[in-house]
Every structure is written in C-alpha cells, then in structure tokens.
Amino acid sequence: MTPSGRPKKPWWPSSMLLRGESVVASTGLVLAAILLAVMGGTAYWTFRVHRNAMEAARIDEIHSLGLILTETVTSLLSSNELSVTRRLLADAARTFDLDRCRIILGDGQVIADAEPSRITLTELPATWSGSAVAESSAQTPDGLLSLIYPLTVPGRGPGQLDLTANVTNDIAYFWEAQTGVGIIGALALISLLLVYRRMRARLGTMGLIREALLAHEAGGSEPATLVIQGTRRAEAEAWNKLVTEKEQLQEQVMSRRVEGILQSPVQSGSELGNALEEMWYGFIVVDRNLDITYANGAAAAFLDTSPDEIRGAGFREIAPDKHVVELLSEVASATAGNRVSVEVDTRGDGGSDSDSGGGAVLRFTMRSLRREDPSAAVIVIEDVTQQRVADESRNTFVTQVAHELRTPLTNIRLCAETAIEEGHADPETRAQCLNVINQETRRLERVVNDMLSVAEIEAGTIELRKDDVRLEALFEEMQTECSAQAKEKGTALEFNLPPKLPVIKGDRDKLTLALHNILNNAIKYTPQGGRITVNVDVENDEVTVDIVDNGIGISEEDMVRIFARFGRANDPRVAEITGSGLGLSLAREIIRLHGGEIRVESQLDKGSTFSVRLPVHAEAA
C-alpha cells in the first residue's frame, strides 16, 4: 500500500500483464526457458544416438554381406560359375549401395567387379599363384569402410573379396526423429502456454477481487464492491458461489437447447435432414416397437428397398438377418450395451468368389437413445465389402507364401543338419548337401523375386531396364540351367534354334525370368519319360518362342485361371506338385510390358504349347 492508501503498481508494464499476473510471470518465463533447454538437449542426444546406431547397423550389414559373399563366391568359382559370380557382385553392390565390390586373385588380377570396366582378367584361369591375405577392416575419417576377406578356391589358388562402402548417413535420415522432438517441444510449449493462460485468468480474477476489496476499504462506493467483503476465506467462498451459480445457469440453458434439438423430429426438408440424405452411410431411427421413423436414401439402397417404402415400415420385415433384429431389440430395450456392432454377409454363399454378382458385407452399428427421447435407437449401416475382400486376399497371399517357402526351407535345414553330422566323415555327402542347399537357395530367390515383381506390377511401379539383349546367349544359358533339371526329372529337353538370332531391346533379367517360368512349368508338369521342345523362329521382325510338351495338359475352363495371380488348374495332379501360382501371371505381364504376347494351346492328357511372341525393335543393336 502507498501512503495514500492505494495499492502498489507492479514493475511489469501494464499493457503486457493483467492485474495480479506479476505473481506468476517470472515463474512462467523460467519454466519456458527450462523446457527449451531440455528439448534442445534431447534433440542433440537423439541425433547422436540415432546416428551412431545407424552407422553400427550399417557396419554390421556390410560385414555380414562380406561373410556371405565370401562363402558363395568360393563355391561359384569352384564350379566355374564366373558369369554368375560377376552378376552376384553387381547385384550386391547395387542392393547394398557399395562403392566397391570386387574379387582379386592372388596374383593381383581382378577377376570380378561390380563395375565391369575395372575387370582385368576376362576368363577364370585353371590355377594361379599368390599368397593368402588376412582379413582386415579400416574406416577413414570421411566415413568410408574398407573390408578385405580372404578366400581360397580349392585346387586353384588364393584370392580376396574387397568391399568398400560409405557408412556415414546423410543428415536427412535423422530429420524424422528431430521432427518428432520438435513437435513434442511445440506441443509442450503450447500446453505450457495454455496452463499459464489458465493460471493467469484465475489469478487475475483473484487480483481483481483483492483490488476491489482494497478500493472498498479506501472509500469506494460502487455496488459491486459491496458484495465482496470480510476475510480472505470469506472472499473465496463468495466468489466461488457466484461462479458456481453462473456455471449452473449456463449448463441449464445449454441442456435445454440440446434437449430441444434431440427431441425435434428429423424433417426431410430441414438442414439436418438434407445433411443425412447426402451421407454415404445408411442412417435409420426406430422407435421402441422397431418401426422406422426416419431413414435416409443410403439406408434404403443398402436394404434393397425404395426410400418411400422404408419410411414407416417395420425394421423386422426388411432386416437382412434375424440376428440384427435380436441385437436391435436388446439395444432398444436397454438390455444390451449402449453400442453394438454386427456384420452381415449378403454375397450369396458369403465368399469373395461368389458367382451371384450381387450382395455386400454390411456393418450395422446400433446405439440406444435416452429414455426421454421418443425414439429408441439409431442404426448406422456401412458397406465394408472391400475391407473383407482385402482381408481374404491377404490371408490367401500369406497361405500361399508359407506353403511355397516351407519346402525349400525344410530341404535346406535337413541338408545342413546332414552336412554337420556326416560331412566330416563323408566329403561326398557334404558336397551333395551343399549342392542341394545351393539349389534350394536359388529356388527361394526365384520365389521371392516372383512375388516382388508381381507386387511391383500391381502397384504400377515396375520399371524395365532396357538394353541390348543377345538372344543367343540367353537361350544358351536357359539350355544349360534347365537341362540338368529336366535330366533329373527324367524328361527329354531339346532346343531348336535358328542359325542366327537378332539382338533385341529389352530387360534381359526380366525376359529370362519370364521364359524360365514357362519352361520350368513345362518340366514340372511333364511326367517322367516325357519330351519338351523349345522352338525359336524369327520372321517379320518378330521372335516366336514355342515351348511344346506332352505333359498332363490344361482343360479349357482352366485356360484363363492359370494366368491369374495365385491361379492354378483344378486338376488333382496339379495339387500334388508344389507351386505358387505366380509364374505364368508374372511371365504374361513381363511379355506384355515388352510389347509381346503369350498364347497357349492345350489338350488334357496330351500336352501344351506356350507361344511367346516378342517384337524386334528397329533400334536394336
């Protein structure tokens, strides 16, 4: 108080603070400064931890890749698979973003490199000299990790696998975590501001009460100041009483307004009625007798009736399922919960493959209303057919993938166990096991690549890496790889190639995958003792590849089914042979992307002929 009896003014500018606010202003500023410091420290710490974790993960990834490549490359070089080795290194460098991925023989010659221009030795020699190197790793200050792995090709000589990769991540990778910290900090500051504003309002009110009492003591005669008097406790009680009365009055007014809105009927010409008519959800209001008092157009469409017929009708007569009526009766009579949902499948036999051509999966959500309302319950109808179809497709996909991957994984596990238990005593058994593991691994790789390619095609993200494709080399590789499979099956395989084949423009890897899928199907579904012929012809700027077999054949009704994703023939003999149902679907899409087509002619128990036609583009080399 000043000598004149007036309260002291705060040192804060009056234009910035409310009366009575100076008590908490300094505290709010300190809390804001502490919060900003904490968020800044958190951002810096998460940045460091995230960066170190990603660099460690990158180093572990490159090291694991080096160990796997060392074992795989040693096996491939032992089998003279030089082209496969080079393709493997190129794929590994592209997939794992390696700066360098190469194999150096003991004499210093580069026999394989992800960058073909760096290869100094084109053919794999029978033997070579040199000394084995030790495994080593080094990391430069700029983030480059260099790894060297020794390898020894039995009976030929030593070598080394040289890998170099960048393990320092771009700063952009860490923006996600920093953005999250920034959002949390912003939310915290907003929350602090809201809390501060709330406290300021309360303390400002108390400051006004205090100043009013002081003014009254100083001789004020305003009527409002006479209401607040007495001790501090009496002041709080008096103020709380006034606030409580005001809040109660506002609640009563609002309650009456809401009650009036809820009790008023929904008219089709009103704003609420027009809004409900535009909804894509079905909306129905029923009374205690389950008679419909209101229904929008979407509800009439879902229940297969007209808007004029549904209004005033009984819900029992038009409901698609008795269970919906039972649940609605329980909701309307308040014997069930306040909100109940149930789904009804009206698609004929209830499956996604129904031939009825109509019906849907409808979700009925029912909720009871208050007892004083004239209506008993509201019903919201949603069409969830696409969600259920997506669920069924996902389940089918998971089942097919599990079935297709189980067999090779089982074979790999059994062969690995056999090699561990008997490999030391019997080198021949160990070699056979390793060969089976190698074959099954390639089989797994083909299955996974098929699935990824199908997913890319369906998503519309597949890209063709067009380049010159030498058909002579492509068919030579096919003959080499598939002859062993046909021989093991006991099937004769013959290639009839013209003297000269053109060089076309296309994606060599994907064309190889498509032709392999068709030929592997022929080998798979041709019984022992059968015959498969691959006829290649070039005429009128078009390459035609006919794959003819005398296998089990395909019925007419299965002709379209076999080209569908996961589609397989209904022949019982097909069910006994493992397959994913992806090969022909993927092959057709790849050939179409190259501007060609696939045709099939088949007779049951007599064999099939798959004809692939590819255009020879003028720009081919």
Count the DSSP helices: 16
Into which percentage range does the β-strand content fall? 15-25%
Number of DSSP-assigned strands: 17
> Briefly, what CATH class of the largest domain?
Alpha Beta
- Count of the domains: 4
The span between the termini is 100 Å
Low-confidence runs of at least 5 consecutive residues: 1-16, 220-233, 258-263, 352-357
Average pLDDT confidence is 76
CATH architecture assignment name of the largest domain? 2-Layer Sandwich
Shape: flat
In short:
By secondary structure, this protein is an alpha+beta fold. It is 49% helix and 18% strand. The protein is built from 16 helices and 17 strands.
What does this structure look like?
There is one protein chain. The protein has four domains: 229 residues, 2-Layer Sandwich (Beta-Lactamase); 113 residues, Beta-Lactamase; 69 residues, Helix Hairpins, CATH 1.10.287.130; 153 residues, Heat Shock Protein 90 (2-Layer Sandwich). The strands form four sheets. It has a five-stranded antiparallel sheet, with helices on one face. It contains 16 helices and 17 strands. It has 621 residues and is an alpha+beta fold.
